[in-house]
Amino acid sequence: xxxxxxxxxxxxxxxxxxxxxxxxxxxxxxxxxxxxxxxxxxxxxxxxxxxxxxxxxxxxxxxxxxxxxxxxxxxxxxxxxxxxxxxxxxxxxxxxxxxxxxxxxxxxxxxxxxxxxxxxxxxxxxxxxxxxxxxxxxxxxxxxxxxxxxxxxxxxxxxxxxxxxxxxxxxxxxxxxxxxxxxxxxxxxxxxxxxxxxxxxxxxxxxxxxxxxxxxxxxxxxxxxxxxxxxxxxxxxxxxxxxx
Length: 244
Fold this sequence. Notes:
It is built from 9 helices and 11 strands. By secondary structure, it is an alpha/beta fold. The strands form 2 sheets. Strands 7-6-5-10-8-11-9 form a 7-stranded parallel β-sheet, sandwiched between helices. The chain is elongated and about 60 Å long. The longest helix has 16 residues, at about 230-244. It folds into 2 domains: about 5-75, CATH 3.30.1330.30; about 80-244, Alpha/beta knot (3-Layer(aba) Sandwich), CATH 3.40.1280. Helix 5 (about 105-120) runs parallel beside helix 9 (about 230-244).
């Protein structure tokens, strides 16, 4: 498993440098960078190794030229156990966990993490395989939210769902192919676990069978589905508003 990941771009890098819980390794700077004094000050506060290099070197490291001449090498965020994640969530006024069923696009995963941070989702549960993990693109798209949203990687989502149900969570899955209810027709006055599915195939039939409710977002346009990160944002916002 990859030990380090690269964070790039001004906002994600600065957010990581200002986060005291981050485990940092190296900061890559352009020797002629305009704001190097500020970045060097932050690096010094962390006793962080600074490497001056070319723009091309940074592009090679992060596999994109959109790094804004600022790259940070960090230790990969810790993996929370399901037990730890659940215990933390149940301390919230409205416990809310999100399960991602094999999301493959790093931009979608990053955008989902950003939404989770903005609306205080207690944690995200993903598979440890067949699912994009936190990488440079995810970190960039999340705008630093990956620093704050606990992620639990497991090898069996069905077992995780059954464990959550035993601890009082009600399971809500998004589906357009089975009997469904509009998201606004339900109450969310118990611990909530929301499942969203893969960009192409949606939620697996096995997980749908283990859910308590299948819900959908009513729309009035010509298309029949939303981008998964957009749909997740709407679902989280709607559920959070109904909990108030």
